[in-house]
Recover the amino acids of this structure.
């Protein structure tokens, strides 16, 4: 009998971890191309026990001081992080090119250098002079902020040994490579090696580290998926090129909530925190205008007011146009169908244009009722009552469904001066300063905002 082989070649997908005995071009699990690489050989045997790094001890005796967060001085960035930076924490900040990642982190490192200690900014995409020019323009120059332009991992580690910073920013992880690993900078193997080395240094020295990451054309973080598992915090930097508003959205956070959002205003002179960005999403009208309705969305745990606008015009085409900006196309099509079928508002011969104000993206179902009322108002030419906001999800049967966080949404609407809110039935406890009108279906919602611009008297009301 032939002897069984003690070892066998193993290949592993860098995205999902799927293994196979032979190389293939496409992963059999996640269907990704070019991610299957040789992972070495599988050796039979038993791993013997070895020396431990630190003796295990009762969890109650572990000190908490090392896990305390320290504010960076940028309020909205601290909000997204859950309070600030933790010693030894590794943060991955990803976003599209030109969205403002480098500007934000340069401001963070300058404030840290002013208040907390030394900060080291490593740039692999620009020269040191280019970064200094941006720092002069945005006022991010500090005595204890050190700057270096490096693309070699060993040189980056040398700078860390020399400067001894308490905060490290690497812009970006895809531009740095290690000479000990094959492959070009930005490849799966190189990104994994660079990230693993920096994470090991951060944990050993208690060094807060921020890694800047690129994104793919689909908006996902470039590089191996294991990178997001290794880091402690994953932040997504979002923003429209035609808008000044920028959002830092928490995707993963081991030290705080994973659903926080920080708001920033990006200008020519730098980036500033927006503690109250609601005004950016509302337009100002001297008198009520048909086709507009205000709603309240939740970005993470933060309620924000948003305005939905609609325009309905007679179409000369066989197939009327349906165009929207800032809204989910599938939900817009569904709401239009429900409005025509259940609300008896004829739209089949009309072009319908829908949009949001200020570049906001309203994709959650709670905006359905506001969208429906805005289109109905535009179709009939009747403006909605002043001081009205609408919250609710619209079902295919025409019912109005409840939404999450209704109390927080109503409290924000009251704070912004709105006096009346259309909400689904049984809203639970509501703020006392706003009038709540409960609606159960599309017909009742349209009746509550009828042509006489008054709330229907027979609608159930709560104050």
């Amino acid at each position: 009998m032939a002897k069984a082989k003690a070892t066998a070649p193993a290949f592993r997908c860098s995205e999902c971890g799927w293994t196979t005995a032979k190389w293939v071009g496409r992963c059999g699990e996640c269907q990704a191309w070019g991610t299957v690489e040789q992972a070495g050989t599988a050796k039979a045997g038993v791993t013997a026990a070895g020396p431990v790094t630190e003796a295990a001890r009762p969890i109650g005796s572990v000190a908490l001081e090392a896990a305390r967060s320290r504010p960076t001085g940028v309020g909205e960035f601290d909000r997204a992080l859950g309070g600030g930076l933790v010693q030894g924490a590794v943060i991955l900040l990803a976003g599209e090119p030109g969205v403002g990642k480098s500007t934000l982190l340069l401001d963070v490192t300058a404030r840290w250098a002013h208040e907390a200690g030394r900060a080291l900014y490593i740039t692999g995409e620009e020269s040191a002079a280019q970064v200094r020019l941006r720092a002069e323009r945005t006022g991010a120059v500090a005595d204890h902020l050190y700057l270096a332009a490096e693309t070699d991992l060993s040189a980056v580690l040398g700078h860390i040994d020399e400067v001894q910073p308490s905060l490290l920013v690497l812009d970006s992880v895809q531009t740095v490579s290690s000479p000990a690993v094959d492959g070009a900078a930005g490849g799966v193997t190189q990104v994994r090696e660079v990230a693993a080395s920096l994470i090991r240094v951060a944990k050993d020295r208690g060094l807060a580290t921020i890694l800047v990451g690129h994104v793919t054309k689909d908006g996902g973080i470039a590089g191996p998926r294991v990178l997001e598992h290794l880091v402690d915090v994953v932040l997504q930097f979002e923003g429209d090129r035609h808008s000044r508003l920028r959002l830092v959205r928490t995707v993963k956070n081991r030290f705080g909530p994973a659903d926080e959002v920080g708001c920033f205003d990006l200008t020519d002179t730098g980036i500033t925190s927006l503690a109250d960005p609601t005004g950016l999403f509302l337009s100002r009208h001297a008198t009520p205008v048909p086709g507009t309705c205000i709603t309240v969305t939740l970005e993470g745990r933060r309620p924000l007011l948003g305005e939905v606008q609609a325009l309905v015009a007679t179409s000369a085409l066989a197939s009327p146009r349906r165009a929207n900006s800032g809204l989910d196309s599938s939900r817009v099509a569904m709401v239009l169908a429900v409005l025509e079928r259940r609300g008896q508002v004829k739209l089949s011969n009309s072009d319908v244009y829908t949009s949001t104000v200020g570049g906001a993206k309203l994709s959650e179902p709670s905006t359905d009722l506001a969208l429906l009322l805005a289109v109905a108002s535009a179709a009939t030419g009747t403006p909605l009552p002043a001081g009205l906001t609408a919250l609710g999800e619209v079902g295919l049967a025409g019912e109005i469904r409840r939404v999450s966080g209704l109390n927080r949404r109503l409290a924000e609407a009251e704070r912004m001066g709105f006096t009346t809110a259309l909400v689904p039935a049984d809203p639970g406890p509501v703020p006392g300063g706003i009038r709540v009108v409960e609606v159960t279906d599309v017909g009742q919602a349209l009746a509550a905002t009828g042509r006489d611009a008054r709330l229907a008297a027979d609608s159930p009301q709560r104050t």
About this structure: The two ends are 87 Å apart (CA to CA). The CA atoms of residues 84 and 216 lie 28 Å apart. The mean pLDDT is 87. The chain has three domains: 9-37, 70-275, 280-462.
